[in-house]
Specification:
The chain is α+β, with helices and mostly antiparallel strands and about 400 residues long. The protein is built from eleven helices and six strands.
Length: about 400
């Protein structure tokens, strides 16, 4: 079994490679299916907005000792008070019942009395809060405005930093992918969207952008070297960058998700609905989706957008034309036999270049104490003939 650290080192050095770019159509197809499901949930099932957005009255019954059938008891108590419409009931903190109804001003006192009797508590422990829909509308407006400003600034900064607008487009596409998928999961599972959730949505965009920028920075470094040396194509250089940053992205994501998962566990089992649970849920979903998009969406899309650039086309043609010759020359320099020569018999004692064996003192048959033969003596030619003694002068 390969150690994870060794696997990451192999990915970084190029000994192992995962074809993220070459198999981009597979990732596109998977993301397209997820996006269709998410959009169907948003537009068909709809979003479950919290009371802060739709308006209404919230009652909290404190110190409840018996929570059995709390939903039916709360529904009956609210109906007895004369408040129409649906009722949303949840347990908060183990001994507090939160009841959300439509806006009720005149029936508030009656509802408090009925809820106190239903859960066998003192009337003073039942609190009520009237929330108007205008506050939620203002929050939504400010959130959308902040999102638009954020995307504009991100586009400008990425275009200036990477000196190409195509990287900015690829990064923004990954951001929108993360946002749609996260909101779609909220819709499909019926999670409540609160102002805390909106804050979480904006936060995950920043995290996803951070992860994408790290990968793009490595892509820029590798592709610049590819343009200089002309030894690899643009797509291969970008794919190597994703492999080199893969382990780092996984480790960063896992480290970020572990404390958020702990908060989610405490929130679901002990605290119940609230700001902490809403924020951590949005962060958990968004960070996981953001790690996926930075690896499988952003870089493959960037390669596809730049595939028609003249510089990229010229580089790919040059590598395709001269790559095989360069590889053969590099193998020859490394002592690797050329194709067709690997199966030729090699004389005993000869090296892989085919040179004849050189006898020395240790060679069988050379005689005890024989002097080593010079390397040129093993070859034929004029320069290897014995030197003649000079003629004596008479």
């Amino acid at each position: 079994m390969i150690h994870f650290a060794q696997f990451g080192n192999d990915l970084y050095t190029g000994r192992r490679s995962i074809a993220f770019v070459r198999r981009r159509r597979v990732w596109y197809a998977f993301s397209a299916v997820v996006l269709v499901i998410a959009l169907a949930g948003i537009f068909v099932k709809g979003l479950n907005f919290g009371i802060e957005f739709r308006g209404g009255t919230e009652f909290r019954v404190l110190g409840v000792t018996n929570t059995q059938d709390y939903e039916a008891r709360a529904q009956e108590a609210v109906g007895e008070a004369g408040i129409p419409g649906s009722v949303t009931t949840t347990i908060v903190g183990g001994d507090t019942i939160r009841v959300q109804t439509e806006a009720a001003q005149e029936q508030t006192d009656a509802a408090r009395t009925e809820l106190a009797e239903a859960f066998d508590v003192d009337r003073q422990t039942v609190s009520s809060t009237l929330i108007g829909p205008s506050w939620g509308a203002a929050v939504s407006e400010q959130a959308i405005r902040g999102l638009i400003v954020f995307l504009i600034l991100v586009t400008i900064v990425m275009a200036l930093y990477f000196r190409t607008w195509k990287m900015a487009v690829a990064g923004l596409t990954a951001l929108l992918h993360d946002l749609v998928v996260t909101v779609g999961i909220y819709s499909l599972f019926g999670f409540e969207i609160t102002p805390s959730s909106m804050i979480g949505f904006l936060t995950i965009l920043g995290y996803s952008l951070y992860d994408t920028v790290v990968v793009f920075d490595k892509v820029r470094e590798n592709t610049a070297e590819a343009f200089r040396s002309k030894r690899t194509t643009y797509a291969d250089a970008a794919n190597l960058a994703v492999n080199q940053t893969l382990v780092r992205s996984i480790n960063t994501t896992v480290v970020a998700l572990l404390p958020i998962a702990a908060i989610l566990f405490v929130g679901f089992t002990m605290l119940g609905p609230g700001t902490l649970l809403d924020l951590s849920l949005a962060l958990f979903i968004g960070i996981a989706v953001g790690a996926y998009s930075s690896i499988f969406i952003a870089t493959p899309l960037l390669v596809q957008l730049r595939s028609k650039d003249p510089a990229v086309v010229d580089l790919d043609r040059y590598v395709a034309r001269h790559g095989a010759k360069r590889a053969a020359r590099d193998e020859a320099r490394a002592g690797v036999p050329a194709p067709g020569q690997a199966d030729q018999p090699v004389p005993v004692g000869a090296d892989r270049t085919g040179a004849a064996p050189v006898p020395d003192a240790a060679t069988p048959g050379a005689g005890v104490g024989a002097r080593p033969v010079h390397k040129y003596a093993a070859q034929s030619g004029p320069r290897n003939q014995p030197r003649r003694a000079p003629k004596s002068k008479r």
